[in-house]
Amino acid sequence: MNSTSTPQYSRIAIALHWILAIALIALFAVGLYMADLPFSPQRLKLYNWHKWAGVCILILSVLRLLWRLTHTPPALPGKVVSAMPGWQTAAYHATHGLLYALFFIVPLVGWAYSSAAGFPIVLFGVLPLPDFVPADKVLAELIKPWHEITAFAMAGLAAMHVAAALKHHFVDRDGLMQRMLPAANGQ
Length: 187
Description:
This protein is mostly helical. The chain has five helices and two strands; from the N terminus they run ααααββα. It has a two-stranded antiparallel sheet. α2 (41-70) packs across α4 (86-116) and α4 (86-116) packs antiparallel against α5.
């Protein structure tokens, strides 16, 4: 534990959190950039990279969920719970639950869109993945906006998560953010 006696997440939980966070930020940025590129070899390369990264994020999300289900996270410290209004506690739980759901929904919708559009995913250019749905241009057009909508929803929730963490760190100064910082974890 750190000097404030706030229970820490395990090193593995911290590593999974930060690897997923960095990967999601990078993938979101590449997605924004590539969406407006004209058709070119660079655009095709970025789309393939985006799909590979999406599959890797899906795998990482499975690992993170399995870890979370088999390793109880530390409870919110009593002083934090008692200081938070009920709506903040509800927002905390809802945000985490929705983020976990979107860790799966966003890449699966992207995979479905790619499959429906007739562009299979060949992971790292060597491992063909099965189509998630059959090729169907009409279905592809129905699915396409949902990948963007869910990606922006995840980005918005992640921004709320970061804002709340920064509030706890800089305004409340309650040590809550230290639970997920690698340097603070003494395990």
